[in-house]
Amino acid sequence: MEELNPELILSFGKRSSELLLDREVKINDEHGKIYSYKNGLSKILILLHPTNINYWMNVDDYKKQVTDVFKAIASNNLNSIPGIFSQKRNIWTQKKNGVKKF
């Protein structure tokens, strides 16, 4: 990573996020959050891994978030990325009595 020195690293899932940040990651709480990488020059965006995404959140909402992230990257508008996740509280899967509600 240090040789590539990317502006933004997309980290899909708990394991990759923990490896990059060198700490425990609570993936469901940290989805959509941006942290500094070790070198201080790169940022890491933590994202839920798409495997079994419907356990964590609505699939269509996840697709929209990821699509919007890639659009922000393509348009070189990285400052807009935190806003993509500002509404996530409304889309998390609520598990109660073994039933998922969206």
List keywords for this structure.
two-stranded antiparallel sheet; 5 helices; globular; alpha+beta; 5 strands; 102 residues
Notes on the structure:
- The chain is of the alpha+beta class and 102 residues long.
- It has one domain (8-101).
- Helix content is 35%, strand content 19%.
- The protein has 5 helices and 5 strands; from the N terminus they run E-H-H-E-E-H-H-H-E-E.
- The chain has a 3-stranded mixed β-sheet with strand order 1-3-2, covered by helices on one side.
- Strand 4 and strand 5 (99-101) form a beta hairpin.
- The termini are far apart.
Question: Order of helices and strands, N to C?
Answer: EHHEEHHHEE
Q: Count the domains.
A: 1
Average the pLDDT over all residues and give the rounded result: 84
- Broad structural category: alpha+beta
Q: What level of helicity do the residues show?
A: 25-40%
Topology:
Blueprint: E1 8-12, H1 14-21, H2 27-30, E2 34-36, E3 43-47, H3 53-56, H4 59-74, H5 81-84, E4 94-96, E5 99-101
Parallel strand pairs: 1-3
Antiparallel strand pairs: 2-3, 4-5
